[in-house]
Amino acid sequence: MDFLPNISSGNKVSDQSDIKQICVIGAGAAGLAALKVIVDTPQYQAGTWIAVAFEARSNVGGVWSPAPPTEDPPLTPIYDSLTTNLPHPVMAYTSFSFPPSTPLFPPASTVQTYLESYAAHFDLTPLIQLRTTVQRTQWEPAIGKWKVQLSSGDTRQFDFIIVANGHYRVPRYPSIPGLSEWITARKASHSAWYRRPHNFGEVVLVIGGGPSGQDIAAEMRTVARTVIHSVTGGVSENLGNFKKRGRVIAFKEGEQVLFDDGTTEFEVDYCLLATGYEMSFPFLSSDIIQSGFPPSCPPLPRRLYNSGYHIFPLAKQMFPLQTDYPPSSIAFMGLLVKVAPFPLLETQGRAVMKVFENPASLDTTQEAVDIITRYEELRSKFCDDTLSISKSWHKYKGQEQFDYRDQLHQFADTRTVVVDWEKEMYGKKNELRIAWRKLEKTGEANDWVKGVGEGGPAEWVDLMRRLLETIGEEEDGDKRPKL
Fold this sequence. Notes:
Layout: E1 20-25, H1 29-39, H2 42-46, E2 49-54, H3 88-91, H4 108-121, E3 128-129, E4 134-140, E5 145-150, E6 155-158, E7 160-163, E8 170-171, H5 179-184, E9 188-190, E10 203-207, H6 211-220, E11 226-230, E12 237-239, E13 242-245, E14 248-252, E15 256-259, E16 264-265, E17 270-273, E18 277-278, E19 290-291, E20 305-306, E21 311-312, E22 314-315, E23 319-320, E24 330-332, H7 341-357, H8 364-381, H9 386-392, H10 400-412, H11 420-427, H12 429-442, H13 445-449, H14 458-475
Parallel strand pairs: 1-2, 1-7, 2-3, 7-24, 9-17, 10-11, 10-17, 11-13, 19-20
Antiparallel strand pairs: 4-5, 5-6, 8-18, 12-13, 14-15, 15-16, 20-21, 22-23
Helix pairs in contact: 1-7, 7-10, 12-14
């Protein structure tokens, strides 16, 4: 039997042909945001839009929902000690704050609980079919709908698709000579399988300069005699049992590892690869998205491409500009990286609703111009290096993410702008995290946040500003943070 969300008896539709079905693939942070904005629409309230989200796992939360690393690849890469690298007032959905007294940089379990609470608070759970995998999605031009095949054996037809399956599942392995031999010999593995520090050997190499690479390198120092942390562009430096190195250029027999500065490390027992993840959409057939790097442009390609690093070309980073199916019938949410994710997802969702409601609102000609303009800017910056362009395509630096959000707000007619304090605190996220960790070490962190938020979000802004003041006080010689 097809799964259909409950519709209140008051939502009566005179003509069944007016009803539009929306399929959301995934019930992580992006899928939940999509459902939230759907249920807020007049169309949903009137019963002319019906939505269902298909989630392969037994709970909502996506990457934040814990799971042992038993599958290949693991269901989630979340390791035991993971905390957010953004203060939660900046990270949270604008429509739903974290609870009062939440640690400023909460652990992953707190974020998972927050997402479950978000789904319950906005009554999204009835719209979610758990333990159901979308196996294949095809566009049927004869009927102008999407055909979706499910793991339950059902095949459903939808007018619109929202792709919200995330991009932290399929491990990315760097192309380094000798690495495959180390993996086969079980001397190297991706950090997707890492959960906690344990005995990998006396000398452990960690590759990757992102948050997980930094965390894992620090944790491994507690169990390994020597930890070597390799970061592209890094400068060689020895700090006790911790060695900083640049990019690895080769793995050799005899436990040798070569680096780009000409140095060699000997007797390396194990390597942990915190080298990121590939974008993967196994449920989209090859006539929907083609694997590989897109051809150079202009002109824009007539097909949609997945390079593993980026999806191209997408209008507003969401809508596929190609000729195989209507760009306004499918949207990719949550592809951007190095951003404050949850509030951006809700904003993207509102823009998606605008396009679903009025396909003509998507000016494909202007969007093509915008894509080519961005492409030319990146091509000039990276000297026509296709790989670098691809890696940077979904990355917005500095204030770019907030400009993008405001553009989406304007497009969706939300009469909203990103507030200044959010921009300010995002820019100070590293300083805030360092100061917060000091409070955790001194045992003062809980006192700082106790009761904060009961009077509204402004209390969190005040706390973050006071925490930043402690940094200046320490620089002036006062080492003790003040409440």
